[in-house]
């Protein structure tokens, strides 16, 4: 009789311990998944609010000489010369578009973000800082606002190509990694991986 009571007590204690272990296991397992999902949603919400992350700004000042004259059979016609010098300033911003970011939260301490490669986000010439010098025109070939516009559009494209060759997008990629890594580590992630597609 005493042995049956001891066996029942051991069996009861064993079942209680088993129930506690099982409850703890299921609680930890499901709470970690739930927490991971909530972290993923929170990160996506923060990143989508930014939309574009500008990480590099290149400021420049240039002077361009413009000359034009009418030709007939490859020979310059007299009294058709027009020219001007223009000094202008501007800036080019590069960064990443965060709309297409793919975020994978592996666990509560690890996150991986896949981004499109950096690109030029903004290329602006400051009209207030533009000065035209040494304007010359002739009766047969007058300066037009279109001439100035065409020169500035061409210069914007040239400046963009030049700064990309100098490594603007590479610098933007490096800065993007630094900024996002710092941001995510402040959110509590220890392992942050940034990948460019």
Task: Describe the structure in brief.
The protein is α+β, with helices and mostly antiparallel strands and 197 residues long. It has three helices and eight strands, in the order αβββββββααβ. The N and C termini lie far apart (73 Å).
> What integer is the average pLDDT?
80
Shape label: rod-shaped
**Any low-confidence stretches, pLDDT <50, length ≥5?**
32-38
Largest sheet: 3 strands, antiparallel
- In total, the number of strands is 8
Helix content: 40-55%
- Kindly provide the radius of gyration, computed on alpha-carbon positions and rounded to a whole number of angstroms: 33 Å
The chain-level structural class is alpha+beta
Q: How do the SSEs run, as a string of H and E?
A: HEEEEEEEHHE
Range of strand content: 35-45%
Arrangement of strands in the largest sheet: 1-4-7
Oligomer: single chain
Distance between the termini: 73 Å
Characterization of this structure:
By secondary structure, the protein is α+β, with helices and mostly antiparallel strands. Helices cover 45% and strands 37% of the residues. The protein has three helices and eight strands. The chain has helices at 2-50, 145-165, 168-186, and strands at residues 52-68, 71-72, 75-76, 82-97, 102-107, 110-115, 119-136, 191-196. The strands form three sheets. Strands 1-4-7 form a three-stranded antiparallel β-sheet. It has a three-stranded mixed β-sheet with strand order 5-6-8. Strand 5 and strand 6 (110-115) form a beta hairpin. The longest helix has 49 residues, at 2-50. The protein is rod-shaped.
